[in-house]
Amino acid sequence: MSQSNFAGGIAMTVAAVALMASLALFPWSARADVTRQMPTSASEVTLSYSSVVKRVAPAVVNVYSRRVVQSQAQSPFINDPFFQRFFGDRFSFGVPRERVQQSLGSGVIVDAGGLIVTNFHVIKGGDEFRVALNDRREFEARVVLADERTDLAVLKIDTKGEKLPFLHFKDSDTVEVGDLVLAIGNPFGVGQTVTTGIVSALARTHVGVSDYQFFIQTDAAINPGNSGGALVTTDGNLIGINSAIYSSSGGSVGIGFAIPSNMVKLVVDSARNGGHIKRPWTGAQLQAIDGQLASTLGLDRPGGALVRDVYPSGPAARAGLKAGDVIRSIDGQDVSDPEALRYRFATKALGGKVKLRYLRDGHTLETQMSLEGPPEKPAADKTLIKGRNPFEGATIANLSPAIADEMGLDTMGGEGVVITAITDGSTADRIQFQTGDIIEAIGDTKITSVSQFKGEVAAPRSQWDFAIKRGDRTFTASVGG
Fold it and tell me: Which of 195, 216, 275, 371 would suit a FRET pair with 350, their CA atoms being 20 to 30 Å apart?
Protein backbone atom coordinates (compact mmCIF):
# COMPACT_ATOMS: atom_id res chain seq x y z
CA MET A 1 0.00 0.00 0.00
CA SER A 2 1.38 3.48 -0.87
CA GLN A 3 1.93 6.06 1.83
CA SER A 4 -0.87 8.29 0.50
CA ASN A 5 -3.35 5.40 0.43
CA PHE A 6 -2.33 4.34 3.91
CA ALA A 7 -2.80 7.85 5.20
CA GLY A 8 -6.17 8.03 3.47
CA GLY A 9 -7.19 4.75 5.12
CA ILE A 10 -6.24 6.12 8.52
CA ALA A 11 -8.20 9.30 7.82
CA MET A 12 -11.26 7.30 6.77
CA THR A 13 -10.99 5.16 9.90
CA VAL A 14 -10.82 8.22 12.13
CA ALA A 15 -13.81 9.71 10.34
CA ALA A 16 -15.81 6.51 10.78
CA VAL A 17 -15.03 6.44 14.50
CA ALA A 18 -16.11 10.06 14.80
CA LEU A 19 -19.35 9.31 12.96
CA MET A 20 -20.11 6.33 15.21
CA ALA A 21 -19.48 8.48 18.26
CA SER A 22 -21.87 11.14 16.98
CA LEU A 23 -24.55 8.48 16.35
CA ALA A 24 -24.14 7.29 19.90
CA LEU A 25 -24.56 10.83 21.22
CA PHE A 26 -27.48 11.73 18.98
CA PRO A 27 -29.05 8.39 17.98
CA TRP A 28 -32.54 9.46 16.90
CA SER A 29 -31.81 12.59 14.91
CA ALA A 30 -28.80 11.07 13.17
CA ARG A 31 -30.57 7.83 12.28
CA ALA A 32 -33.62 9.67 11.03
CA ASP A 33 -31.41 11.57 8.58
CA VAL A 34 -29.54 8.56 7.25
CA THR A 35 -32.71 6.44 6.77
CA ARG A 36 -34.48 8.98 4.57
CA GLN A 37 -34.19 7.82 1.02
CA MET A 38 -36.08 7.86 -2.21
CA PRO A 39 -38.08 4.78 -3.25
CA THR A 40 -35.98 2.58 -5.51
CA SER A 41 -38.84 0.69 -7.20
CA ALA A 42 -42.51 1.06 -8.09
CA SER A 43 -43.45 -1.61 -5.55
CA GLU A 44 -42.16 0.59 -2.72
CA VAL A 45 -44.70 3.33 -3.51
CA THR A 46 -47.72 1.13 -4.31
CA LEU A 47 -48.29 -0.57 -0.98
CA SER A 48 -51.99 -1.39 -0.84
CA TYR A 49 -54.71 -3.33 0.98
CA SER A 50 -56.40 -4.10 -2.34
CA SER A 51 -55.58 -7.81 -2.27
CA VAL A 52 -57.18 -8.16 1.17
CA VAL A 53 -60.23 -6.11 0.14
CA LYS A 54 -60.76 -8.18 -3.02
CA ARG A 55 -60.84 -11.31 -0.90
CA VAL A 56 -62.98 -9.93 1.93
CA ALA A 57 -65.45 -7.51 0.32
CA PRO A 58 -67.62 -10.16 -1.43
CA ALA A 59 -68.50 -11.58 2.00
CA VAL A 60 -69.89 -8.25 3.28
CA VAL A 61 -73.53 -7.57 2.39
CA ASN A 62 -76.29 -4.99 2.78
CA VAL A 63 -79.22 -5.88 5.03
CA TYR A 64 -82.61 -4.24 4.43
CA SER A 65 -85.32 -4.43 7.10
CA ARG A 66 -88.93 -3.56 6.20
CA ARG A 67 -91.83 -2.92 8.54
CA VAL A 68 -95.44 -1.99 7.72
CA VAL A 69 -97.13 0.30 10.26
CA GLN A 70 -100.66 1.66 10.46
CA SER A 71 -101.11 5.43 10.55
CA GLN A 72 -104.33 7.42 10.89
CA ALA A 73 -104.93 9.87 8.07
CA GLN A 74 -106.37 13.07 9.53
CA SER A 75 -108.97 15.42 8.10
CA PRO A 76 -107.87 18.99 7.30
CA PHE A 77 -110.75 20.11 9.57
CA ILE A 78 -109.32 18.28 12.59
CA ASN A 79 -108.62 21.54 14.48
CA ASP A 80 -111.73 23.40 13.36
CA PRO A 81 -113.65 24.54 16.53
CA PHE A 82 -117.05 24.05 14.81
CA PHE A 83 -116.42 20.37 14.11
CA GLN A 84 -114.72 19.87 17.47
CA ARG A 85 -117.88 21.20 19.18
CA PHE A 86 -120.01 18.42 17.69
CA PHE A 87 -117.54 15.57 17.42
CA GLY A 88 -114.99 16.29 20.14
CA ASP A 89 -111.98 13.98 20.29
CA ARG A 90 -113.77 11.38 18.14
CA PHE A 91 -113.70 13.72 15.15
CA SER A 92 -111.78 12.28 12.20
CA PHE A 93 -112.73 11.79 8.60
CA GLY A 94 -109.49 9.99 7.93
CA VAL A 95 -109.07 6.28 7.41
CA PRO A 96 -106.14 4.14 8.52
CA ARG A 97 -103.43 3.78 5.93
CA GLU A 98 -100.31 1.72 5.74
CA ARG A 99 -96.87 3.24 5.89
CA VAL A 100 -93.65 1.35 5.22
CA GLN A 101 -90.62 1.91 7.44
CA GLN A 102 -87.27 0.71 6.13
CA SER A 103 -83.84 0.54 7.67
CA LEU A 104 -80.46 -0.29 6.22
CA GLY A 105 -77.45 -1.95 7.76
CA SER A 106 -74.63 -4.29 6.87
CA GLY A 107 -73.94 -7.96 7.44
CA VAL A 108 -71.21 -10.57 7.06
CA ILE A 109 -71.47 -13.98 5.41
CA VAL A 110 -69.95 -16.49 7.84
CA ASP A 111 -70.95 -19.72 6.11
CA ALA A 112 -70.80 -20.73 2.44
CA GLY A 113 -74.41 -21.91 2.68
CA GLY A 114 -75.73 -18.38 3.23
CA LEU A 115 -75.57 -17.78 7.00
CA ILE A 116 -75.19 -14.05 7.71
CA VAL A 117 -74.49 -12.25 10.97
CA THR A 118 -75.57 -8.65 11.61
CA ASN A 119 -76.61 -6.46 14.54
CA PHE A 120 -79.88 -7.05 16.35
CA HIS A 121 -80.69 -3.34 16.12
CA VAL A 122 -80.46 -3.56 12.31
CA ILE A 123 -83.37 -6.02 12.11
CA LYS A 124 -85.27 -5.02 15.28
CA GLY A 125 -89.00 -4.61 14.63
CA GLY A 126 -88.72 -5.69 11.02
CA ASP A 127 -91.29 -7.91 9.29
CA GLU A 128 -89.42 -8.60 6.06
CA PHE A 129 -85.71 -8.78 5.33
CA ARG A 130 -83.62 -8.67 2.18
CA VAL A 131 -79.91 -9.16 1.68
CA ALA A 132 -77.99 -7.59 -1.21
CA LEU A 133 -74.69 -9.21 -2.09
CA ASN A 134 -71.61 -7.39 -3.26
CA ASP A 135 -72.42 -8.44 -6.85
CA ARG A 136 -75.88 -6.73 -6.54
CA ARG A 137 -77.92 -9.92 -6.35
CA GLU A 138 -80.71 -9.77 -3.77
CA PHE A 139 -82.26 -12.52 -1.63
CA GLU A 140 -85.13 -12.78 0.81
CA ALA A 141 -83.79 -13.60 4.26
CA ARG A 142 -85.24 -15.17 7.38
CA VAL A 143 -84.14 -14.71 10.96
CA VAL A 144 -82.53 -17.79 12.47
CA LEU A 145 -81.56 -16.21 15.78
CA ALA A 146 -82.06 -12.74 17.26
CA ASP A 147 -80.26 -11.99 20.52
CA GLU A 148 -80.87 -8.52 21.89
CA ARG A 149 -78.52 -9.10 24.83
CA THR A 150 -75.47 -9.31 22.55
CA ASP A 151 -76.98 -7.03 19.86
CA LEU A 152 -76.43 -9.79 17.31
CA ALA A 153 -78.72 -11.54 14.85
CA VAL A 154 -78.19 -14.37 12.37
CA LEU A 155 -80.02 -14.48 9.03
CA LYS A 156 -80.26 -17.21 6.41
CA ILE A 157 -80.68 -16.85 2.65
CA ASP A 158 -81.51 -19.62 0.19
CA THR A 159 -78.69 -19.82 -2.35
CA LYS A 160 -80.15 -22.86 -4.16
CA GLY A 161 -77.00 -24.79 -3.36
CA GLU A 162 -74.55 -22.11 -4.54
CA LYS A 163 -71.54 -21.65 -2.30
CA LEU A 164 -70.90 -18.06 -1.25
CA PRO A 165 -67.65 -16.38 -0.20
CA PHE A 166 -67.45 -16.08 3.58
CA LEU A 167 -65.12 -14.83 6.29
CA HIS A 168 -63.28 -16.98 8.80
CA PHE A 169 -63.28 -16.02 12.47
CA LYS A 170 -60.05 -15.00 14.12
CA ASP A 171 -59.54 -15.34 17.87
CA SER A 172 -60.27 -11.81 19.09
CA ASP A 173 -58.10 -12.40 22.16
CA THR A 174 -55.04 -12.41 19.88
CA VAL A 175 -55.69 -8.83 18.74
CA GLU A 176 -53.52 -6.12 20.27
CA VAL A 177 -53.76 -2.35 20.51
CA GLY A 178 -52.01 -0.87 17.48
CA ASP A 179 -52.92 -3.67 15.07
CA LEU A 180 -54.05 -2.49 11.63
CA VAL A 181 -57.70 -3.22 10.80
CA LEU A 182 -60.19 -2.61 7.99
CA ALA A 183 -63.87 -1.73 8.49
CA ILE A 184 -66.24 -2.68 5.67
CA GLY A 185 -69.91 -1.77 5.39
CA ASN A 186 -72.45 0.55 3.77
CA PRO A 187 -72.26 3.92 5.56
CA PHE A 188 -75.19 6.27 4.94
CA GLY A 189 -76.35 3.92 2.16
CA VAL A 190 -73.74 5.23 -0.29
CA GLY A 191 -72.55 1.72 -1.17
CA GLN A 192 -69.91 -0.64 0.12
CA THR A 193 -67.04 1.32 1.65
CA VAL A 194 -63.69 0.30 3.10
CA THR A 195 -61.89 2.32 5.78
CA THR A 196 -58.69 1.55 7.63
CA GLY A 197 -57.26 2.34 11.03
CA ILE A 198 -55.84 0.66 14.08
CA VAL A 199 -57.19 -1.06 17.15
CA SER A 200 -57.36 1.87 19.57
CA ALA A 201 -58.32 -0.06 22.71
CA LEU A 202 -59.57 -3.44 23.90
CA ALA A 203 -62.16 -4.53 26.45
CA ARG A 204 -64.19 -1.32 26.44
CA THR A 205 -66.92 -2.04 28.98
CA HIS A 206 -69.04 1.10 29.27
CA VAL A 207 -70.42 1.56 25.77
CA GLY A 208 -74.05 0.80 26.65
CA VAL A 209 -75.38 -0.86 23.48
CA SER A 210 -75.80 -4.42 24.78
CA ASP A 211 -75.88 -6.45 27.98
CA TYR A 212 -72.35 -7.72 27.39
CA GLN A 213 -70.12 -4.66 27.56
CA PHE A 214 -66.81 -5.73 26.03
CA PHE A 215 -65.86 -4.07 22.76
CA ILE A 216 -62.92 -3.59 20.43
CA GLN A 217 -62.38 0.13 19.84
CA THR A 218 -61.01 1.34 16.50
CA ASP A 219 -60.35 4.64 14.75
CA ALA A 220 -61.30 3.15 11.37
CA ALA A 221 -64.21 5.31 10.19
CA ILE A 222 -67.57 3.76 11.14
CA ASN A 223 -70.79 5.61 10.33
CA PRO A 224 -74.55 4.93 10.35
CA GLY A 225 -75.15 2.02 7.96
CA ASN A 226 -71.88 0.34 8.97
CA SER A 227 -73.71 -1.49 11.77
CA GLY A 228 -73.38 -5.22 11.25
CA GLY A 229 -70.39 -4.83 8.94
CA ALA A 230 -66.99 -6.47 9.24
CA LEU A 231 -63.91 -5.47 11.17
CA VAL A 232 -61.07 -7.52 9.70
CA THR A 233 -57.35 -7.87 10.19
CA THR A 234 -54.90 -7.39 7.35
CA ASP A 235 -54.81 -11.15 6.82
CA GLY A 236 -58.51 -11.00 5.89
CA ASN A 237 -60.04 -12.65 8.96
CA LEU A 238 -63.02 -11.43 10.97
CA ILE A 239 -62.24 -10.05 14.44
CA GLY A 240 -65.43 -8.10 15.08
CA ILE A 241 -68.86 -6.86 14.00
CA ASN A 242 -69.05 -3.07 13.85
CA SER A 243 -71.86 -1.97 16.14
CA ALA A 244 -71.63 1.53 17.57
CA ILE A 245 -69.86 4.86 17.44
CA TYR A 246 -69.23 7.63 19.90
CA SER A 247 -70.29 10.84 18.19
CA SER A 248 -71.96 14.16 18.95
CA SER A 249 -72.72 14.79 15.27
CA GLY A 250 -73.90 11.37 14.10
CA GLY A 251 -70.78 10.90 11.97
CA SER A 252 -67.47 9.24 12.65
CA VAL A 253 -65.03 11.02 14.96
CA GLY A 254 -62.63 8.10 15.13
CA ILE A 255 -64.22 6.27 18.04
CA GLY A 256 -65.98 3.13 16.84
CA PHE A 257 -66.82 -0.10 18.64
CA ALA A 258 -67.04 -3.68 17.41
CA ILE A 259 -68.35 -6.83 19.10
CA PRO A 260 -65.37 -9.23 19.41
CA SER A 261 -65.38 -12.24 17.10
CA ASN A 262 -65.31 -14.69 20.01
CA MET A 263 -68.75 -13.48 21.08
CA VAL A 264 -69.98 -13.42 17.47
CA LYS A 265 -68.81 -17.00 16.92
CA LEU A 266 -70.75 -18.18 19.99
CA VAL A 267 -73.98 -16.67 18.60
CA VAL A 268 -73.36 -18.08 15.10
CA ASP A 269 -72.65 -21.55 16.53
CA SER A 270 -75.87 -21.32 18.53
CA ALA A 271 -77.77 -20.47 15.34
CA ARG A 272 -76.31 -23.57 13.69
CA ASN A 273 -77.31 -25.74 16.65
CA GLY A 274 -80.99 -24.98 17.05
CA GLY A 275 -81.12 -21.23 17.46
CA HIS A 276 -81.04 -21.06 21.27
CA ILE A 277 -78.14 -19.55 23.20
CA LYS A 278 -77.10 -21.25 26.41
CA ARG A 279 -74.62 -19.29 28.47
CA PRO A 280 -72.67 -20.26 31.59
CA TRP A 281 -73.75 -18.70 34.86
CA THR A 282 -71.48 -17.59 37.68
CA GLY A 283 -74.02 -17.86 40.49
CA ALA A 284 -72.61 -14.68 42.03
CA GLN A 285 -73.57 -11.03 42.31
CA LEU A 286 -70.64 -8.83 41.36
CA GLN A 287 -69.62 -5.21 41.90
CA ALA A 288 -67.07 -2.97 40.18
CA ILE A 289 -64.12 -1.69 42.22
CA ASP A 290 -63.22 1.99 42.02
CA GLY A 291 -60.31 3.78 43.66
CA GLN A 292 -62.09 4.37 46.97
CA LEU A 293 -63.30 0.79 47.28
CA ALA A 294 -59.86 -0.51 46.30
CA SER A 295 -58.35 1.49 49.16
CA THR A 296 -60.96 0.15 51.59
CA LEU A 297 -60.24 -3.42 50.50
CA GLY A 298 -56.48 -2.89 50.75
CA LEU A 299 -55.87 -3.42 47.02
CA ASP A 300 -52.89 -1.95 45.23
CA ARG A 301 -55.10 -0.62 42.42
CA PRO A 302 -58.72 -0.52 41.24
CA GLY A 303 -59.90 -3.41 39.12
CA GLY A 304 -61.41 -6.82 39.38
CA ALA A 305 -64.91 -7.98 40.29
CA LEU A 306 -65.99 -7.90 43.92
CA VAL A 307 -68.24 -10.79 44.97
CA ARG A 308 -71.24 -9.30 46.80
CA ASP A 309 -73.22 -12.49 47.25
CA VAL A 310 -73.29 -16.10 46.05
CA TYR A 311 -76.24 -18.31 45.17
CA PRO A 312 -76.49 -21.33 47.50
CA SER A 313 -75.10 -24.45 45.83
CA GLY A 314 -74.38 -22.46 42.63
CA PRO A 315 -71.11 -22.65 40.65
CA ALA A 316 -69.42 -19.85 42.62
CA ALA A 317 -70.43 -21.33 45.98
CA ARG A 318 -69.19 -24.80 44.99
CA ALA A 319 -65.90 -23.25 43.83
CA GLY A 320 -65.43 -21.87 47.34
CA LEU A 321 -66.01 -18.20 46.56
CA LYS A 322 -67.45 -15.99 49.31
CA ALA A 323 -68.76 -12.45 49.63
CA GLY A 324 -65.78 -10.07 49.79
CA ASP A 325 -63.56 -12.05 47.41
CA VAL A 326 -62.13 -10.11 44.46
CA ILE A 327 -61.85 -12.01 41.16
CA ARG A 328 -58.80 -10.80 39.21
CA SER A 329 -58.50 -13.21 36.28
CA ILE A 330 -60.23 -16.04 34.43
CA ASP A 331 -58.16 -18.60 32.53
CA GLY A 332 -55.20 -16.21 32.70
CA GLN A 333 -57.16 -13.26 31.23
CA ASP A 334 -57.24 -10.19 33.48
CA VAL A 335 -60.65 -9.13 34.77
CA SER A 336 -60.94 -5.35 34.98
CA ASP A 337 -64.59 -5.22 36.11
CA PRO A 338 -67.75 -7.37 36.32
CA GLU A 339 -68.58 -6.71 32.64
CA ALA A 340 -65.27 -8.23 31.57
CA LEU A 341 -65.92 -11.30 33.70
CA ARG A 342 -69.46 -11.73 32.30
CA TYR A 343 -68.07 -11.51 28.78
CA ARG A 344 -65.44 -14.15 29.51
CA PHE A 345 -68.07 -16.48 30.89
CA ALA A 346 -70.48 -15.78 28.03
CA THR A 347 -67.92 -16.90 25.44
CA LYS A 348 -67.24 -20.22 27.17
CA ALA A 349 -68.97 -23.47 26.27
CA LEU A 350 -71.11 -25.27 28.81
CA GLY A 351 -69.76 -28.40 30.41
CA GLY A 352 -66.15 -27.46 31.09
CA LYS A 353 -64.33 -25.59 33.83
CA VAL A 354 -62.51 -22.28 34.12
CA LYS A 355 -59.64 -21.32 36.40
CA LEU A 356 -60.20 -18.25 38.57
CA ARG A 357 -57.58 -16.25 40.42
CA TYR A 358 -58.95 -14.17 43.28
CA LEU A 359 -57.91 -12.22 46.36
CA ARG A 360 -59.10 -12.92 49.90
CA ASP A 361 -57.73 -11.10 52.94
CA GLY A 362 -54.65 -10.02 51.01
CA HIS A 363 -53.83 -13.52 49.75
CA THR A 364 -53.97 -14.65 46.12
CA LEU A 365 -55.89 -17.89 45.68
CA GLU A 366 -56.97 -20.03 42.75
CA THR A 367 -59.97 -22.24 42.14
CA GLN A 368 -61.87 -23.93 39.35
CA MET A 369 -65.49 -23.19 38.54
CA SER A 370 -67.88 -25.37 36.54
CA LEU A 371 -69.47 -23.93 33.41
CA GLU A 372 -73.18 -24.60 33.72
CA GLY A 373 -76.41 -22.84 32.91
CA PRO A 374 -78.63 -21.15 35.48
CA PRO A 375 -81.37 -23.36 36.99
CA GLU A 376 -85.02 -22.63 36.25
CA LYS A 377 -86.24 -23.26 39.78
CA PRO A 378 -89.08 -22.62 40.28
CA ALA A 379 -90.50 -23.23 36.79
CA ALA A 380 -91.27 -19.98 34.94
CA ASP A 381 -95.04 -20.54 34.53
CA LYS A 382 -95.24 -17.56 32.14
CA THR A 383 -98.78 -16.16 32.16
CA LEU A 384 -100.47 -13.32 30.26
CA ILE A 385 -102.62 -11.36 32.72
CA LYS A 386 -106.16 -10.51 31.61
CA GLY A 387 -109.18 -8.92 33.27
CA ARG A 388 -109.93 -5.61 34.93
CA ASN A 389 -106.74 -4.84 36.82
CA PRO A 390 -103.63 -2.63 36.41
CA PHE A 391 -101.54 -5.57 35.14
CA GLU A 392 -103.79 -6.43 32.17
CA GLY A 393 -101.53 -7.08 29.16
CA ALA A 394 -98.45 -7.97 31.20
CA THR A 395 -96.80 -11.38 30.91
CA ILE A 396 -95.38 -12.49 34.24
CA ALA A 397 -93.13 -15.35 35.36
CA ASN A 398 -91.75 -16.85 38.53
CA LEU A 399 -88.37 -15.36 39.34
CA SER A 400 -85.53 -17.86 39.05
CA PRO A 401 -81.80 -17.71 38.23
CA ALA A 402 -82.64 -18.65 34.63
CA ILE A 403 -85.24 -15.89 34.24
CA ALA A 404 -83.01 -13.34 35.97
CA ASP A 405 -80.10 -14.23 33.69
CA GLU A 406 -82.31 -14.18 30.58
CA MET A 407 -83.52 -10.67 31.41
CA GLY A 408 -80.19 -9.33 32.63
CA LEU A 409 -81.49 -8.64 36.14
CA ASP A 410 -79.06 -7.94 38.97
CA THR A 411 -80.51 -10.65 41.14
CA MET A 412 -79.90 -14.36 41.48
CA GLY A 413 -83.51 -15.36 41.79
CA GLY A 414 -85.40 -16.21 44.94
CA GLU A 415 -89.11 -15.85 45.50
CA GLY A 416 -90.98 -13.31 43.41
CA VAL A 417 -92.77 -12.51 40.18
CA VAL A 418 -91.26 -10.53 37.29
CA ILE A 419 -92.82 -8.90 34.23
CA THR A 420 -91.27 -10.46 31.11
CA ALA A 421 -93.33 -8.75 28.37
CA ILE A 422 -95.98 -6.05 27.94
CA THR A 423 -98.61 -5.86 25.20
CA ASP A 424 -98.69 -2.54 23.36
CA GLY A 425 -101.74 -0.45 24.26
CA SER A 426 -102.69 -2.60 27.25
CA THR A 427 -103.50 -1.30 30.73
CA ALA A 428 -100.03 -2.33 31.93
CA ASP A 429 -98.53 -0.39 29.02
CA ARG A 430 -100.53 2.74 29.81
CA ILE A 431 -99.56 2.58 33.47
CA GLN A 432 -95.96 2.36 32.23
CA PHE A 433 -94.87 -0.88 33.78
CA GLN A 434 -91.61 -2.13 32.28
CA THR A 435 -90.17 -5.53 31.47
CA GLY A 436 -87.92 -6.51 34.34
CA ASP A 437 -90.18 -4.98 36.99
CA ILE A 438 -90.43 -7.29 40.00
CA ILE A 439 -93.89 -7.25 41.62
CA GLU A 440 -93.12 -7.36 45.33
CA ALA A 441 -96.56 -6.81 46.85
CA ILE A 442 -100.22 -6.16 46.10
CA GLY A 443 -101.85 -4.37 48.99
CA ASP A 444 -100.40 -5.87 52.15
CA THR A 445 -99.72 -9.23 50.52
CA LYS A 446 -96.16 -10.15 49.57
CA ILE A 447 -96.07 -11.77 46.11
CA THR A 448 -94.04 -14.97 45.95
CA SER A 449 -95.38 -16.86 42.91
CA VAL A 450 -97.39 -16.57 39.71
CA SER A 451 -100.20 -18.73 41.11
CA GLN A 452 -100.50 -16.50 44.17
CA PHE A 453 -100.43 -13.38 41.99
CA LYS A 454 -103.28 -14.68 39.80
CA GLY A 455 -105.36 -15.20 42.92
CA GLU A 456 -104.71 -11.64 44.09
CA VAL A 457 -105.79 -10.03 40.80
CA ALA A 458 -108.83 -12.26 40.28
CA ALA A 459 -111.01 -10.35 42.74
CA PRO A 460 -112.15 -6.79 41.84
CA ARG A 461 -110.89 -3.90 43.98
CA SER A 462 -111.92 -0.28 44.32
CA GLN A 463 -108.24 0.63 44.59
CA TRP A 464 -105.05 -1.21 43.68
CA ASP A 465 -101.99 -0.63 45.85
CA PHE A 466 -98.78 -2.33 44.79
CA ALA A 467 -95.01 -2.28 45.29
CA ILE A 468 -92.63 -2.64 42.34
CA LYS A 469 -88.87 -3.13 42.36
CA ARG A 470 -87.14 -1.63 39.31
CA GLY A 471 -83.38 -1.93 39.25
CA ASP A 472 -82.10 -1.06 42.72
CA ARG A 473 -85.18 1.02 43.63
CA THR A 474 -88.56 0.01 45.07
CA PHE A 475 -91.57 2.25 44.72
CA THR A 476 -95.26 2.03 45.60
CA ALA A 477 -98.27 3.27 43.65
CA SER A 478 -102.07 3.29 43.80
CA VAL A 479 -104.50 2.95 40.90
CA GLY A 480 -108.28 3.16 41.00
CA GLY A 481 -110.20 -0.02 40.29
Answer: 216
